[in-house]
Design brief:
coiled coil, alpha/beta, 15 helices, DUF2326, about 550 residues, P-loop_NTPase
């Protein structure tokens, strides 16, 4: 539990305020009798959030940061009889210092915020499947200027949070997420398997048909091909066709590769001929043509033309070595292709001689083509059936997930509504008053008191929701600001204080104007008050900066 908080900037009557000590159960921050504002009640609750790993104190309490400046909060936790000392600065708030008993930071013991939150989660026994410490407690820290005081959205951590995230956070807090997590993984795996197979077919990585009509057409083609293959076998009296699917496909691939290699060889030969022609070209070859030009153009400058041609000749000479290299490379490539062609021809002959020694090559090729086509069609249909199976598995897993989620939600909903009804009867003194009611769905929820949408009733419902969660789960504490009590009927407010007073887990509240409460409620508050704040130098930081300075 949280045992103590102190800060050198906490001031009372011009002096540093002493440590603020907390106990089990209720801990009260008490304001002035007249409901005085701007004395630090909500700010102190924001500091509690800061101690529990939140960042809103630094990011949202801008007036404090502006008027107080950088400061360090020191605090003690007690777990299993052992004290743990820490400090956290508003300047370096992403790190938490592990300290000695005098709050001197220990060398090499500083924690990152994530490490610190994991520490708290473990010590508070909140390390449940899928649940982080802040995900568990942040929703129940209800302080002005945080987005957790919406009386209609008790599960909301921030305004933009999706309904599904809020609902799932509750399931995790109730330790109902494990069966869902297992189902989520199975559904995710099924989704992934189906999408991968579907995309493989769409991009033609595997042979597949897309429609039932195509599937049926393939069935007919398969039957026709089998008949044609049977006819080829029966008509071939001189030889025997013993090609299996693999051999037929292999023979077909050999033919395709031979065709590609021969095309490639022809391309190389054409390039080689061009290189040889360029290599033999030179200016001497055209010199007689220059003399003929002079007959038609007597004034032509043959010397200039011969100089240009001479330059070209020099360039050709320089390029001769490159031509030679290119020629050698092309001849090597042609030789290698010839070698591969001979290998494939030999391999094709070997297959023919072994499997169909007396069969004409044309018949063998036709047989191989039909065998390969048959295999392709059968693979397309097989993969179509596989895709259907994966689609069904995807559907089944998602339906199982939906059923599991709904089952867990129904159980949590029942527990909460039953507990809130019991608490409401205690607070209202009768079962005739409608209790708050929550309805949970997979992607959202509703929370209301049926037939009573009044502000006081709505905040009473929010308080009872938190109390129910405190009693039903491992939630270690909650924090309620004074704004939550403002519109609640006095007698019901008395009962709420009595409910707080009975709690063993830590409850932190701020409250003021208690003189209207019952004597019993006032006694409970005074007994559990850990910090009293009021005007006149007794504000949290010893002053109220909303007061204008006198000249």
């Amino acid at each position: 539990m949280l045992k103590q908080i102190s800060c050198d900037q906490f001031i009372i009557d011009g002096k540093v305020r002493g440590p603020i000590n907390f106990g089990k159960g209720l801990n009260v921050v008490l304001g002035g009798k007249g409901g005085t504002n701007s004395i630090g009640k909500s700010t102190f609750l924001m500091i509690l959030d800061f101690v529990f790993g939140g960042n809103d104190y630094v990011k949202k309490d801008s007036d404090v940061q502006k008027n107080v400046g950088q400061h360090t909060i020191k605090f003690i936790f007690e777990f299993n009889g052992k004290d743990y000392y820490f400090s956290r600065s508003t300047e370096d708030f992403q790190n938490i210092n592990v300290c000695d008993e005098n709050f001197k930071p220990l060398a090499d013991k500083r924690m990152t915020r994530d490490e610190y939150l994991k520490f708290l989660s473990k010590k508070y026994n909140l390390d449940l499947p899928g649940l982080s410490f802040r995900n568990a407690v942040s929703r129940f820290i209800r302080v002005y200027n945080r987005q957790t005081v919406n009386e209609r959205r008790p599960l909301q951590a921030v305004n933009q949070e999706q309904g599904k995230q809020q609902v799932y956070s509750l399931l995790k807090l109730f330790d109902r997420y494990s069966p869902i997590e297992a189902r989520e993984k199975a559904a995710s795996d099924a989704d992934k398997a189906y999408k991968v197979f579907k995309n493989a077919g769409a991009f033609k990585y595997v042979p597949i048909v897309d429609t039932k009509k195509q599937f049926k057409e393939n069935v007919d083609k398969i039957s026709e091909l089998k008949d044609e293959l049977s006819d080829l076998e029966s008509k071939n009296n001189e030889g025997t066709l013993n090609l299996d699917e693999i051999q037929a496909e292999h023979l077909r691939n050999i033919r395709e590769n031979l065709s590609k290699l021969r095309d490639c060889k022809n391309t190389y030969i054409s390039r080689l001929n061009v290189v040889k022609a360029n290599e033999q070209a030179g200016p001497g070859k055209f010199r007689s043509n220059y003399r003929e030009l002079q007959q038609f153009f007597p004034d032509i400058d043959l010397n200039r033309i011969e100089e240009i041609d001479k330059f070209h000749h020099q360039v050709t000479k320089f390029l001769k070595e490159e031509f030679e290299k290119e020629k050698n490379s092309l001849e090597t490539n042609i030789s290698e292709i010839d070698h591969h062609i001979n290998e494939l021809v030999t391999e094709a002959r070997k297959i023919k001689n072994q499997q169909a020694p007396n069969v004409q090559t044309a018949i063998l090729n036709d047989y191989a083509d039909k065998k390969a086509e048959l295999k392709r069609l059968e693979d397309e249909n097989k993969n179509y059936e596989k895709k259907k199976e994966l689609k069904e598995a995807q559907k089944d897993q998602n339906e199982a997930l939906k059923t599991t989620v709904n089952t867990q939600l129904a159980e949590v909903q029942h527990l909460l509504n039953e507990k809130m009804a019991k608490l409401n009867e205690e607070i209202c003194g009768s079962s005739s008053f409608q209790p708050p009611h929550i309805e949970l769905k997979a992607n959202n929820y509703s929370f209301e008191t049926i037939n009573d949408q009044g502000t006081g009733t709505s905040f009473k419902g929010l308080i009872l929701f938190d109390q129910a969660c405190l009693e039903l789960t491992r939630l270690p504490f909650f924090i309620h600001d004074s704004l939550m009590f403002s519109n609640i009927e006095i007698d019901r407010k008395d009962k709420i204080i009595e409910m707080y007073g009975k709690e063993n887990k830590q409850v932190f509240i701020s409250i003021d104007t208690i003189d209207l409460l019952s004597d019993k409620a006032q006694q409970i508050i005074k007994k559990h008050t850990v910090l009293t704040l009021e005007r006149g130098g007794k504000e949290l930081f010893g002053r109220s900066w909303n007061e204008q300075q006198s000249n």
